[in-house]
Design goal:
single chain; alpha+beta; GIY-YIG endonuclease; three-stranded antiparallel sheet; 41% helix; 22% strand; GIY-YIG_endonuc_sf
């Protein structure tokens, strides 16, 4: 589980997201994009224009499962995602 980015290598714009299962989430993004119905219209437009081969999936940070019970991992991942966006000072992000 962790925070990842999908980077457009043509214009360096990135989509930052998080998931308990990053591979499944990446596959979901790809499927939505391939069917032309991704919720982020700007991201979809660039995918259509540049093609799948110009987008890369990169893990930014991983979160290790704790032995503690009752941990809200989605909340922790969202916080980590927001911290990374600030820390990396990304200039061009799909919003």
């Amino acid at each position: 589980m962790g925070v990842f980015q999908i980077k457009n290598i043509k214009n360096n714009k990135v989509l930052i997201d998080h998931s308990i299962d990053m591979e499944s989430k990446w596959n979901r993004h790809k499927m939505e994009l391939k069917f032309g119905n991704h919720r982020n219209r700007s991201f979809q437009k660039d995918w259509n224009e540049y093609g799948e081969e110009n987008f890369v999936f990169e893990v930014l940070s991983e979160l290790i499962k704790s032995e503690e019970e009752n941990i809200n991992y989605n909340k922790k991942l969202k916080t980590l995602q927001n911290m990374l966006i600030e820390e990396l000072d990304i200039e061009s992000i799909y919003k």
